[in-house]
Amino acid sequence: MTTENKGIEQKWKDSVEQIVKRFPERKQSFQTSSDIEVERLYYPENDDTYHEKLGFPGEYPYTRGIQPTMYRSKYWTMRQYAGFGSAKETNKRFRYLLEQGQTGLSVAFDLPTQIGYDSDDPMAEGEVGKVGVAIDTLHDMEALLDQIPLDKVSTSMTINAPASILLAMYIAVGEKQGVPKEKLTGTIQNDILKEYIARGTYIFPPKPSMRLITDIFAYCKEYLPKFNTISISGYHIREAGSTAVQEAAFTIANGMAYVDAAIASGLDVDDFAPRLAFFFNAHNNFFEEIAKFRAARRVWAKIMREHYQAKNPKSWKLRFHTQTGGSTLTAQQPDNNIVRVTMQALAAVLGGTQSLHTNSRDEALALPTEESARIALRTQQIIANESGVADTVDPLGGSYFVEALTDQVEAEIEAYLKQIKELGGAVAAIEEGYMQREIHRTAYETQKRIEKEEEIIVGLNKYKIDEEVNPELLKVDEALEREQKASLQATRNERDNELVESVLKQLEWAAKQEDENLMPYIVNAVKAYASVGEICHVLRDQFGEYGSI
Amino acid sequence: MAKIRVLIAKPGLDGHDRGALVISQGLRDHGMEVIYTGLRQSPAQIAKAAIQEDVDVVGLSSLSGAHRTLFPKVVEELKANNAADIPVIGGGVIPSEDIPFLLEQGIKKIFTSGSSIDELANYIQELIQPNQIEPIKKISHIGIAVHSIEKVLPFYTKQLGLQLEGIEEVESEHVKVAFLKIGESRFELLEPTNETSPIHTFLQKKGEGIHHIALAIDDIEARLRALSKDGIQLINEEPKLGAHQAQIAFMHPKSTHGVLFELCQEAGGEET
């Protein structure tokens, strides 16, 4: 054994021993049903390429995971995305999920909130409370988070174009609960680039949108050091039809665009990079998905250390949330979806995810019912507690197939990154429509393969049955839109409207300045109960709106 | 016959347009003209676009749950603008229990998750042009098998006075082809380049003479699907590349009473 390798191995063992002393693992030791001892990590001794390409978990380039003990210490965070109707109803579902053992919240907002329209805006007609909860003013946010202790629960918010506003509301609710900003934990999605590519809830053009994002980076570095300022999302790119490689490559390219923008705004890379988070899809091709997660970690680590010269190891780590693939679910024989979700969730766990949302079986039909949402959560709990896959770190590391696939996915991600760089980076590539075209091409080919039965989807194009799919579905009360409008009007009547006018004027002034951080102005505006629509209206006037390409 | 014109629209704020985009392209491949509105269209905007673009049918896609409000509004807007004759169909994430309500509100049909492009295209075809097959407009060319192009060419150019457009070798078929324009069609003289050529076999069995008739069409995939659905035996189930980069496919003479017909979609534009 070379002394160098021996040194690395010993050093890792020693440092893990230290960590485990301070933060014990779930159990003293782990065994199989036959009492075979399960080690923390399996690896080849004295192997140069191992250290270069894979490394130990918790060490560069993080192929095997970002923590040394992974799920032996703590399971991934089980975080089910939920939200529908009114803030009050969603609050009830949240408290139910927390009682059921969920460990973090994830808020879905309705489309008017996501696109910056108040519930009484004509554009909002028919959409209020449909795909998530309707939030107009701080009043709604207070109801949403009622009796949920923000110093104990971390909250993920799927909000992009108006991310600053919802974050400001979260801060304001925290203050009312007596929780200082510094203690707040959670994530805002805040990833506008993938909205242009795949998800469609953009408001402003790229330049001011990037400013809003880097303002959040700077503000959170100062005041919310534990908050994830962005969740760079491949999930929706995949849902729009991309391949696994395209998903990872376009997401990483977008990530680089945010890093570039933040550096250009004067931040040091290590000031914000440790708070960047990612969000991926877990699709059907089991091993490719695992390889994708492992390759993405390695590519990002190299980019951050070598290209951006980040010094803090936390800046090198790609931390990610995973959601199982919504577009893989079928409306036919919906219970089959439980099996799909199980395998996708397992791939995410074997790929080393930090948190996970498992879809409900009925999502191809409507929003999930309480029972379906519970089965989805139970799926994760069964994988964690019963399967034993969480008892050793990166159990598939060293598999000839998985390692070869990881290398190949990595090479193809890099080829796409090169192509995007030649187009002038992610923002230019998006404006030119490059990523959109690539995704659409794959989506169409997939559809044709399914229709020609070259790709089999069980229950859809093979093994079909005559069935009446009429499961119990969750319905959003049609009266909700009316009630939400009335409640907004009541807030408008009660609040100090002179104050609202003055905070919005100040925001307008700040938006005109190029180097004024907008966050403090937005915090003031929401505290005065200015609505999401009113704040966005001020910004629309200054920034303009993005036209679909 | 005019191409069927379809407006695919995304009402409301929903940004999920994978389905809308895939369907737009799928219907285009079925030979229809498709206009896609893009995201965030109000019912009034959709109705206006449908009228301005003079479409035959409007297809709405929504995955956000707003269909109960927005789909009927599109129907209303069309009515209000004297365009109630334009049928509206819809799709997306639509619970089956909502379908009767939507049909009652005047939506012609709802396609739910798992419907294929073929089903949709056939439905639209039946709805707009029931029981009508678009007639073949012209003969693209007549293929004539010859032993030697060089030897027979003077008959066509001198005695018939036709103009030679060019000679091309199609490697995949092991033939050399001479093109001679005649009106809006052509003669294609086919000379085998070796003994594996189908033309060589033809010449041995039957001697020189007419080999096939090629029909000009502009929607080869849809034509092939339709033929195969009607039980016509095809030599090529999928289009392949022929001379001039045209997409071609042959029908089996067993199914066409002894005539070898080729379907030919010329490259770089549609037949007019």
UniProtKB/TrEMBL annotation, chain A:
Alphabetically sorted, this entry's keywords are: Cobalamin, Cobalt, Isomerase, Metal-binding
Domain Methylmalonyl-CoA mutase alpha/beta chain catalytic span(s) in chain numbering:
32-545
Instruction: Look up the record and name the cofactor or cofactors this protein needs.
Output: adenosylcob(III)alamin
Q: What is its EC number?
A: 5.4.99.2
Entry's Gene Ontology molecular function annotations: cobalamin binding; metal ion binding; methylmalonyl-CoA mutase activity
Q: What class of enzyme is it?
A: isomerase
InterPro entries named in the record: Cbl-dep_enz_cat (IPR016176), MeMalonylCoA_mutase_a/b_cat (IPR006099), MMCoA_mutase_a_cat (IPR006098)
Family as reported in the entry's similarity comment: Belongs to the methylmalonyl-CoA mutase family.
Entry-linked NCBIfam families: acid_CoA_mut_N (TIGR00641)
What the entry lists under PANTHER family is as follows: METHYLMALONYL-COA MUTASE, LARGE SUBUNIT, METHYLMALONYL-COA MUTASE, MITOCHONDRIAL-RELATED
Give the protein name, as stated in the record: methylmalonyl-CoA mutase
Q: Please tell me the species this chain comes from.
A: Ornithinibacillus halotolerans
Q: Lineage of the source organism?
A: Bacteria, Bacillati, Bacillota, Bacilli, Bacillales
UniProtKB/TrEMBL annotation, chain B:
Question: What GO biological process terms are annotated to this protein in UniProt?
Answer: L-methylmalonyl-CoA metabolic process
Q: Where does the source fall among the domains of life?
A: Bacteria
| SUPFAM superfamilies in alphabetical order | Cobalamin (vitamin B12)-binding domain, Glyoxalase/Bleomycin resistance protein/Dihydroxybiphenyl dioxygenase
State if Endoplasmic reticulum is listed as a keyword.
no
Query: What Gene3D superfamilies does the database record attribute to this sequence?
Result: 2,3-Dihydroxybiphenyl 1,2-Dioxygenase, domain 1, Cobalamin-binding domain
Q: Which cofactor does it need?
A: adenosylcob(III)alamin
What molecular functions are annotated in GO for this chain?
cobalamin binding; metal ion binding; methylmalonyl-CoA epimerase activity
Task: Cite the CDD domains for this sequence.
Answer: MM_CoA_mut_B12_BD, MMCE
Q: Where is the VOC domain?
A: 138-266
**InterPro entries cross-referenced by the UniProt entry:** Acid_CoA_mut_C, Cobalamin-bd, Cobalamin-bd_sf, Glyas_Bleomycin-R_OHBP_Dase, MeMalonyl-CoA_epimerase, MMCE/EMCE_epimerase, VOC_core
Stretches assigned to the B12-binding domain: 3-131
Q: Provide an example Pfam family for this protein.
A: B12-binding
Keywords from the named record: Cobalamin, Cobalt, Isomerase, Metal-binding
Q: Which family does it belong to?
A: Belongs to the methylmalonyl-CoA epimerase family.
**Which PANTHER family has this protein been placed in?**
METHYLMALONYL-COA EPIMERASE (PTHR43048), METHYLMALONYL-COA EPIMERASE, MITOCHONDRIAL (PTHR43048:SF3)
What is this protein identified as?
Methylmalonyl-CoA epimerase
Tell me the organism. Answer: Ornithinibacillus halotolerans
